[in-house]
Structures are given as C-alpha cells and as structure tokens.
Amino acid sequence: MELSMSGGALRTFSRCVTCLARIGSDLVFQAYPDKLELHTLNSSRSAFASVSLTRDFFDHFHLPADAYADAAPSSTPLQCSVLLKSVLAVLRTPTSAIDRLNASLPNPQASKLEFVIHCVSGRKKTHRISCSAESDVQTLALDRNGFPSRLAIRPRDLTRLLSNFQSSLQELTVIATEPAARLPGVDDGTGGKAVELLSYIDPTKDDYDSRLHTQLWIDPAEEFLEYEHAGDPVDVTFGVKELKAFLTFCEGCEVDILLFYQKAGEPVLLAPRFGFDDGSSSNFDVTLVLATMLVSQLNDGSVPQQPPTSAHHAEEPRAAAAAPSPVPENVSNHTRIWSELSANF
C-alpha cells in the first residue's frame, strides 16, 4: 500500500486521527482497491469509530494486486494495526509546515508502517511504526436507513446545549417524542419541546456530581436542522466523552452532526451531515457507533420532572432544595432548563 496526501486532505486526515485517539488506543488500517478505512474501539467496547477515505481523497493511492494474495479483494483488505499515540506523534508537525505526507506498507506481513513527511522547508522526516500481530478491533456496519428516528444539529448549537451540564458528566440521556404529541390547549411550559436532554445519574455513586440533575426541554424547530420521530416516546443513554470527540471533529471540518437512534438498548449512530445531501459526493465519511443503556429512563422515578408553572404551585413550599438555574443570554427562549440538587445539605 502506498498513499500520499497534502493540503486540505492532510488537515482532514489529522482531524480524523485526533478524533479516533480520543475514543480508542489502537488504530486499524484496512486498505481496499477503492478506499482506505480506519477503525478504533474504546477500552470498554462501548464505542466504535470508523473513517472511510476514498481514492479521490489522496493525491496518490496504490494497492498492488498481490497485496491480497489468494483472497478476494472486495472481501479481504490489506490490514495492519498500530498504536494511535504513535500516529499522533507523526502528526505532531503542524500541517501548515508539511508539503505532503506519504505512507506505505510493503506487504501484509510487513512489521512496520512507514510515514514520510516532506516539509515546506525541504526537510524530510521518516517514521516507522511497529504493527501489532493481531487487532482486537472488529469492523461494524450499520444501515442508516434502518434507524426510525434521526436528528441533525449544528456543532456550535450542540456545544451550547451541552454547556448547561456539568463538565464531569459521563452519560447523557436523550428522550424523543412526537412534536404533535402534546395535548392541544394544555400549556405545561413544554409546548413544542419534543426533545429532552438530561444527565444520567448512576445510582451506585454518591458524590456531588451524582446529586446534580440537569434537564433541557428542546424545541426541534428551533435547535435542530432536521428532526424525525414518530410513535411512542423513546430514550437512549450513551457516553459523553466520545460524543464530544465527534463534536470537535465535525466543528473542525465545518459539517453538521447527524444522530440516528432507535430505543434504549439499541446502538446510536453519529455521522457528519454534508450540506443537504447524504454525503455521496464527499470523498470521506466518519461514523461513530455508541452503545446505550439497556434500561429505559422513561419510567425511572429518579428522573427529575419539570417544575409546575402555575402561580399556585410556585408558592407552595418544597421539601428538597431545588431552584431553576439562571438561563445564559445566549440560550434560546425555546429551550427550557432545569437543575435540581437531589440531596439536602
């Protein structure tokens, strides 16, 4: 395998590797005649990330016919596994100082993956990274059309919504309902707000972070670029760390985020949204698959409910210390925020 990249492709490749490094520790290269795929899996096996780069992504891409030996090229790729931190070390040189980057793997039995950096200054740096004998990362393919629900959001809007939660939050729950499911004529303060984001509270932990409940009621028409959901309410709870890594990648590439989901216990899939098309015209694609909690939070009594909005109830004394958090100026009026401390001090 031989490949070369420069300019915008090199910057995108660097962002891809950085994103994958925030998710897993091993990077698997799989080379096909028409594309190169990069895969990683986190240590808890709850997040799988994949990057697909077509031949057109590279300045030069060559895969010898004998690289597949006797295997069918369409089914058995040329594969090697390396440590992500080693690839990050190669990309430590600023992309603005790189004229082009070459990578090569002579054959499937090669023990090292070679990177050659040709700098703008004329210097040449050669890095050889040892390949692992076997990889624990398995490929995973999910059909996006198989998910009944989806939403699309701008990275900056998702960043703003997540800023309402404590920075140490590890899992986030998304509850989706039909926008038209709200009863007409009933004003409960959530009219039109068909999506809820709330912090998942681990019942086995007893610290400050586990006492702080934060919940957002969101109007999809205001916050999302797309929103599709029909039928009964569903919820999915997944890790925040990997979500933020994907968010940073999409923000750097200036693309929107697509989130596909089904129900609790089923995986969610995140992918870039390339304008108004399905990404078929793009020469790269990235997918992030996250495992979700098996137990639904919809009937969990620990989930905080929205406070009453009538004046009568607002004047009643409350047993627990609870008060609505101040809403920052940059938060839309269509997004309602509520925080609650679940313990007395």
UniProtKB/TrEMBL annotation:
InterPro entries: DNA_clamp_sf (IPR046938), Rad9 (IPR026584), Rad9/Ddc1 (IPR007268). GO terms for biological process: cellular response to ionizing radiation; DNA repair; DNA replication checkpoint signaling; mitotic intra-S DNA damage checkpoint signaling. GO terms for cellular component: checkpoint clamp complex. Residues 300-331 are annotated as: Disordered. Belongs to the rad9 family. PANTHER family: CELL CYCLE CHECKPOINT CONTROL PROTEIN (PTHR15237:SF0), DNA REPAIR PROTEIN RAD9 (PTHR15237). This is Cell cycle checkpoint control protein RAD9A.
